[in-house]
Design goal:
The protein has seven helices and no strands. By secondary structure, it is mainly alpha-helical. Helix 2 packs antiparallel against helix 7.
């Protein structure tokens, strides 16, 4: 995704209080927190390396999280 795409998605998330509430709830999810502490995941996120993320088992686990799936669905509307 381009910088403009990321900016647009960020703006959409930030302007939707329901999505922001869902994102905030992830701070209490141990699986999500563990993944965010993984240096490989954080490096891939920082560099925009989506292929590294999509092959990381911890990242794939959080992508299957019900809240994350709900956020994805709301973002597609």
């Amino acid at each position: 995704p381009s910088s403009a795409d990321i900016s647009s998605l960020t703006e959409k998330m930030m302007s939707d209080s329901e999505i922001m509430s869902m994102i905030q709830s992830l701070k209490d999810d141990p699986t999500f927190l563990k993944a965010m502490e993984d240096p490989a995941i954080m490096k891939a996120v920082s560099s925009g390396d989506t292929s590294a993320l999509m092959t990381n088992p911890k990242f794939l686990e959080i992508m299957n999280n019900a809240t994350v799936r709900d956020i994805q669905q709301k973002m597609q509307k």
